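Researcher: I'm preparing a figure for a lab meeting and need a structural model of a single chain. I don't have an experimental structure, so a prediction will have to do for now. The sequence is pasted below. Please return the structure as tokens so I can convert it later.
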Amino acid sequence: MCFHETQYSIIIQGVDRYSDRLLAEYLIAETASQDPKVGGPIHLSEITPENGYRELSGSEVETIHQSNSELNARLRDFFLKGGKA
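Model: Understood. Here is the structure written out token by token.
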């Protein structure tokens, strides 16, 4: 994995913007689930050369959260079944 810093953000080479959003939401949600001082609605934004700064809508964040929840469930099942899908 290779990191590149641009004037807009740090980009992980080989990771697309959607995956960046998934990771950001996951990290915030996981922190909130473990730390009682963290919580409330998750707000995400992005900065791109094409559009500049943009806050993601609540429905976009909810879609990302749902996707993360589905991936977590699949991963949990994988480990509980001993690596069998």
